[in-house]
Amino acid sequence: MNEDKLKEILTCKSIDPAVRLDFPMLAVKSHGQPFAYLNNAATSLKPKPVLEAMARYYQEYGSSVFRGVDSIAYKATQAFEATRYKVKDFIGAKQAESIVFTSGATAGLNLVCHSFAAARLQPGDELVVGATEHHANYVPWQQLCKQKGARLVLAPNNERGEVTPELLESVMTDKTRLVAVCHMSNVMGAVNDLKALAAIAHRHGAYLVADGAQGIVHERPEVADWDVDFYAFSAHKIYGPTGVGVLYGKYDLLESMPPMIYGGEMIDVVDVADTTFRDPPYRFEGGTPPIAEVIGLGAALDYINSLGYCCMQQKTLQLCKRAVRGLQQNPNVEIYNPDNYFSGIVSFNVKGVHPHDAASIYDREGIQVRAGHHCAQPAMRWLRQNATLRASFAFYNNEEEADRLVTATKKAGDFLDVFF
Questions:
Q1: Residue of 212, 202, 188, 255 lying closest to 392 (CA atoms)
Q2: Which of 321, 303, 291 is nearest to 397 (CA)?
Q3: pLDDT, tens digit, for every residue of 16-51?
């Protein structure tokens, strides 16, 4: 992150601690203790406005969309489409027609892979992927290269886990057709400069596909300004419901893509021998969509806008920094990303304790973290680890929870001493 951006975040007003009351899950007890949810990089908790918006749909206007002329169906359709425009504004897109609703970031990336890239990749072509990507932004491209006889090229990372412009340039050739990188690593919390990377890809005649699942939580995208060709994210990472996500694509590219799922409402005309399809985004949304979930996503974006993105970033950064500094006082802790506070992610291990054993100890202390390879085995290979612990913070966490993590980590080390 550049210094100007950091200064902007640090001057934002503080989040009101009362915001915790918006999240019913924070009132839950775990093993008789207050629940400390530090697994936000996996999924976020849902605020009351999101839960209430979804409940209102089911209770007051639960109808299908695009399939009725009655007032209830019209209200449902209006609420559904309103979210498309909210997403457009939220990510800085030029037009709402570039916003495709999917089941999540994984579905969006696979749609680009199979509908867009598959038609363009030829034997001998090259496809560049970040070396530490989440499986959802690695395996589809790997498998496509195998099918097409193309070459998968890994873009290296620097010591912070970033794919810098210089490192990407080092692997680009006249055979490169597409570059797939994350906005932010779900393991290291490293943020890639998508605008700079897109410029390099385009200079070589390639397309830039971004996995925004982690990044959208911590840095508001500006997809048009960054000139990315595709950007995918999931609602559940940004305080919305599960089961819905977004694929942004430049409209002319979406127009060139065939649908992958055939069904109702994505059709223009069905003839005996052939079918024509609606224009994007609707050609990619066949069947009854996740209506309540889309409405919930819209409510989540409203909620974020009401709090202020910058304020959320500041709180997350401060909590992450507090946890890292506390963990650094423990000689048995190895932290793999000590400087990436902005991400809210701390990836670490307790020496001599398997991450799964340590996670069980945290659980008994009422703390939820994640242990494992985080659906990112390429990142584990890069770290030369089989698995890590990952604590990840959100703006609704507090200093007490960061301190509880530090204390519980010492207990994990003490647990080892009992046996050795």
A1: 188
A2: 321
A3: 899 999 999 999 999 999 999 999 999 999 999 999
pLDDT at 265: 87
pLDDT value of position 6: 64
C-alpha of 331 from chain center = 32
Burial of 218 (0-12, 13-18, 19+ CB in 10 A): buried
Within 10 angstroms of residue 368's Cβ, the number of other Cβ atoms is 17
Residue 352: what are its φ and ψ, rounded to 5°?
85, -5
Segment (H or E) for 126: strand 126-130
Q: Cite the DSSP H helix spans in 11-100.
A: 48-60, 71-91
Q: State both tokens at 217.
A: 């939580």
Strands (E), 149-237: 151-155, 176-182, 207-211, 230-234
Cβ atoms 152, 142 nearer than 8 A = yes
Place of tokens 């010591």: 159
As a whole number of angstroms, the distance between CA 135 and CA 2 comes to 28
Please check whether residue 224 is in contact with residue 94, taking contact to mean a CB–CB distance below 8 angstroms.
yes
Nearest CA to 415 out of 363, 375, 369 is that of: 363
**Structural domains present in the chain:** 3-40+309-419 (3.90.1150.10), 50-305 (3.40.640.10)
CB-based burial label for 2 (10 Å; 0-12, 13-18, 19+):
exposed
- Is 311 noted as a catalytic residue in this protein? no
41 within 8 A of 388, measured Cβ to Cβ: no
211 token code pair: 């996995």
What region, left, alpha or beta, does residue 189 occupy, with left being phi > 0 and alpha being psi -120 to 50 degrees? Answer: left
The residues near 252 (Cβ < 8 Å, ≥ 6 apart) are none
Whether this prediction's pTM lies above 0.90 is answered by yes
Beta strands in 259-321 (DSSP E): 267-270, 275-277
Give the integer Cα–Cα distance in Å for 108 and 234.
Answer: 9
Which residues partner with 345 through β-bridges? Answer: 392
Residue with tokens 């021998």: 273
